Amino acid sequence: MGKRSEFPRRERDFYPTPFEAVQPLIPHLPLRATFIEPCAGDGALISHMARFGYHCVRAMDIEPQGVAIEKADALTDDGLHRWCADLIITNPPWSRPVLHQMIARFSFILPTWLLFDADWMHTRQSAPYMPLLRKVVSVGRVKWIPGSKMTGKDNVCWMLFDASTQGATEFIGRAA
Length: 176
What we know:
eight-stranded mixed sheet; alpha/beta; 8 strands; Rossmann fold
């Protein structure tokens, strides 16, 4: 699934979010916050967040893999900003054109936590979006495919994008 992999990518970058990837994010969220999940897939992230007391008020995906997930495109959905939620939290596709559109759109609607490869922030293509980046929470390598022997080849992190605030980006290193 990464740049150093010979494996074919899954269509639309559908890799359900493992529980281990969610745990590092929890200490950085307001207690009992509500959220929108715009790339809900099979709802794995929503289920993990619920275990910590967080409530998803809207789950959507362009190709839903779960029954409670609405078929909608968050990049064109006009009603996204009308939902009463505290945050947007998602494991987005890592395709740069899609990812960049999501950062640009979502960060102006609500504070947005995205889970993706840590290398992105060290590239030139990230420059236009860095002024929106408020916090980085390191996760490390994740096992994206349950039952496989290997983790992914890319380190990942949660990145908080928020157009409503300004300031330096805070970096939270990986916990033990």
